[in-house]
Amino acid sequence: MLLNQNCPGENQSPVAASDTSGGGSPRSEGGEDWTPNLVGFCCNWCSYAGADLAGINRLQYPPNLRIIRVLCSSRVNPMFILRALQKGADGVLVAGCHPGDCHYSTGNYYTRRRFHIFQRHLEFFGMDPERVRLEWVSAAEGKRFADVVSEMTEQVRKLGPNKKFRSNLI
Amino acid sequence: MKDTVQQLRRRSKELLQEGEVDRVLGWRAGRLAWQSAPAVAESPEEVDRLQVGPFSASNLTKYLIDIVRPEHPAPDEQPPGRTAVWARGCDARAINRLITDGVLDPAQVLVLGFSCPGFADRGRVADSVDLKSADSCQWTADEGADFVVRTADGDVQLSMGDVLADRCASCTHPEPVRCDEEFTGATSAGAGDRFAALAEFEEMDQQERYEYWRRQFDRCIRCYACRNVCPACNCVECVFDGDLPDRPDWLGKATDLSDKQMYHITRAFHVAGRCIECGECERICPVNIPLRAIMQRTAADIEELFSEHQAGLSPEETPPLQSYRLDDPEVKEEGST
């Protein structure tokens, strides 16, 4: 979906749909009841399984995060993050295996360097760095996944809707 | 500087006569006094029009890519052979960049390095000379980097140190960092603060920075000149060239601020840790976006987070974003800075 602008399903896609929030409450931007749209890129081997475990354990966490599964956190091209922000995401989470635990041995070490520079880069252009987050969540850390999503949802909710870098054409 | 230019010409002629190289890449005088264009000499006679003037600012390495990897090769295309390049510090670093990136085979190039005199900023020269009436611009002495601008109203002598372009003032390597033959000479470049362009951002808060860059990027006409001139932007297929059937169109065709922002953020990130700090992007920009500041910010971040690093000093380097250390700092420990 992120890759193809002309995808027929675009209008129903969670990222582009800015009229409903995650909780299903009307998205009056900046209003009291507003909750953020978050996009999460989760690595297949740890974080996605961690999210799954959170579900299996019936842990409660805010429904604001839309998960996109990637094979490794280093698969996350920074342009994915920018495109999500362009299309109406209020925050982007990138989650991968803990350093040392990468399924491909070294992928997340590259992610860590790249993301660090990218986050600083966005900050230089005036973006709130809290909106773009990198977290390590293992397949056994369902609780941690729930905590991370809760914390990030709360943080971004306080920051309010993201207007920066957002496309006017959606 | 006159001396250095003579030496470069003499050696270039020898190389062409002996058949050591197939062509020599340098600069020639431009149409106007304050211009200078890249030029190729393929015979010893043509070498005479090569020169290094006070305005010979353009980085020559992108022309090397065209030579070794022509975009539309003719059916009977000959192998590119060997090219001699007149190279200052930034050219030599850019050549290292191409070698590191696998674009250029070191055997394909012969680097004739010379100490860079620094180059003149047109605006600063125009403060003391009416450039519209200028006929020519020439070095005054065998040594040193003073030059004289001949105008209809008489000659004006200028010292390079007074009219130096910003990027040359903050240059750390005016000497060619790696060359096959070196021609020494005067330099007035260098010794400046490498991160000088960052000072003005220290005062700004987040919202001010956003507004500042929004205004800058809003002017962008997406001509992609900053990409085309950049020695680090040497991909065969660029992510910004859409219209490929199996590739996503990352940027829309409409004039949208968000797409301009996306272009600039991504362009800068793609050359992060690989930028050789020549400042060509900023020089070439038709709407004067301060692109050098972005690259300085990234370079400063890399130095702070990972290791002391300046790209292009050696062809064997590993770019910092293509490597890692087990003890790299964690992102969240940083918090917001």
Report how far apart the termini of chain B are. Answer: 46 Å
Strand content of chain B: 5-15%
The strand line-up of the biggest sheet of chain A is 2-1-3-4
Count of DSSP-assigned helices of chain B? 14
Percent range for helical residues of chain B?
25-40%
What does this protein look like?
The complex is a heterodimer of chains A (170) and B (337). With 170 residues, chain A is of the alpha/beta class. Helices cover 32% and strands 14% of the residues of chain A. In chain A, helix 1 crosses helix 4 (142-159). By secondary structure, chain B is α/β, with parallel strands linked by helices. Chain B has 14 helices and 9 strands. Chain B has helices at 2-17, 44-47, 61-68, 89-100, 122-128, 160-163, 166-169, 199-202, 206-219, 225-229, 257-270, 280-284, 291-305, 331-334, and strands at 23-29, 36-41, 50-51, 83-87, 109-114, 134-139, 147-151, 154-158, 181-183. In chain B, strands 1, 2, 3, 4, 5 and 9 form a 6-stranded mixed beta sheet that branches. In chain B, strands 6-7-8 form a 3-stranded antiparallel beta sheet. The longest helix of chain B has 16 residues, at 2-17. Chains A and B meet through helix 2, helix 3 and strand 4 of A and helix 9, helix 11, helix 13 and helix 14 of B.
Spell out the key features of this protein.
heterodimer, A: 170 residues, alpha/beta, 4-stranded parallel beta sheet, 4 helices, 4 strands, 14% strand, globular, disordered N terminus, B: 337 residues, 6-stranded mixed beta sheet, 3-stranded antiparallel beta sheet
In short, what is this structure?
The complex is a heterodimer of chains A (170) and B (337). Chain A has helices at residues 47-56, 78-86, 107-124, 142-159; strands at 38-43, 65-70, 91-96, 132-136. By secondary structure, chain A is α/β, with parallel strands linked by helices.
